[in-house]
Write a structure and sequence with these properties.
By secondary structure, the chain is mainly β. The protein has one domain (36-205): Fimbrial-type adhesion domain (Immunoglobulin-like, Sandwich). 0% of the residues lie in helices and 40% in strands. The strands form three sheets. Strands 3, 4, 5, 7, 8, 9, 12 and 14 form an eight-stranded antiparallel beta sheet that branches. It starts with 6 loop residues before the first strand and ends with a strand.
C-alpha cells in the first residue's frame, strides 16, 4: 500500500533588484490526506506464471514469438467503500521490446528478451458488473480501457460511466498476461537463458 503526500515546491530566482522591491519571505506548504480506509490486493497462484522450458527452435527467427496467454485472478479487499486506482512498477525496466509493456530481463549479452502486457477482464465490484477506465495524466482525465501498466492508472467505474472512478469495497477481475519473446535472430541463445519478468502491483488512493 502506498500513500503519498504531494508538496508544493517554490523556487526563488535571485536578481539584481532594489531592496525596496525584494520580498523578505516566501511561503511553502505541505498538504496531503491520510485515509482511514485501507485496501489489500491479492493474486491467485502467488502471482506467478511459469511458461516452462522453451527451445530455441520454438522461437520465430524474424518476428516476436507469442506465448500462450495466462490468467491470474485479482482480488482487492477494502475496509470500506474506497476510491482507488491500480498501476504497476516494472522491475525489469528498460528490457521490454514494447515500451509500455513489462520487461522480461536480458540475455547474458544484454539483449532484451521480450515483454509481457497485462489487461483486466471480467471486472466485478461489490457483486455487480463494472467496467475499467484508464488515465494517462495521473488521474486528471479518464477514458475506457483495460490495460494495467506502469504508464497509466486503471480504476473501477460504473458500466454506464466512462470518465469517473467509483468507490468500491470488494473488487475482482481476471488479469490476462500476454507474453512475447523477441525475435530469435537478435538473441544469443548458445546457453540457457531465464525468462525473468517481474512487476509490482501498486495501489493509488484517489
Amino acid at each position: 500500500m502506498h500513500k503519498y503526500f504531494p508538496a508544493l515546491l517554490a523556487s526563488l530566482l535571485l536578481t539584481n533588484v532594489s531592496s525596496a522591491l525584494a520580498a523578505s519571505q516566501i511561503d511553502l506548504s505541505v498538504t496531503g490526506v491520510i485515509t482511514p480506509k485501507a485496501c489489500t490486493p491479492g493474486l491467485s497462484d502467488g502471482g506467478t506464471v511459469d511458461h516452462g522450458k522453451l527451445t530455441s527452435r520454438d522461437l520465430n527467427q524474424d518476428r516476436d514469438t507469442l506465448l500462450p496467454r495466462n490468467t491470474l485472478r485479482l482480488n482487492v479487499q477494502c475496509e470500506g467503500s474506497t476510491l482507488f486506482a491500480l498501476t504497476t512498477i516494472d522491475n525489469r525496466h528498460g528490457t521490454a521490446v514494447i515500451p509500455n509493456h513489462h520487461g522480461l530481463g536480458t540475455t547474458p549479452n544484454d539483449e532484451n528478451l521480450g515483454s509481457v502486457s497485462l489487461t483486466l477482464n471480467n471486472p466485478v465490484a461489490d457483486t455487480q458488473a463494472v467496467r475499467t477506465i484508464v488515465s494517462l495524466d495521473g488521474g486528471t482525465t479518464w477514458a475506457p480501457g483495460t490495460q494495467l501498466g506502469h504508464l497509466n492508472l486503471l480504476a473501477v467505474a460504473a458500466v454506464d460511466n466512462t470518465t469517473q472512478p467509483m468507490a468500491v469495497t470488494v473488487f475482482d477481475a481476471d488479469i490476462v498476461l500476454y507474453t512475447r519473446i523477441a525475435r530469435a535472430d537478435g538473441l544469443t541463445l548458445t546457453d540457457e537463458v531465464h525468462v525473468d519478468g517481474h512487476a509490482t502491483l501498486e495501489m493509488k488512493y484517489l
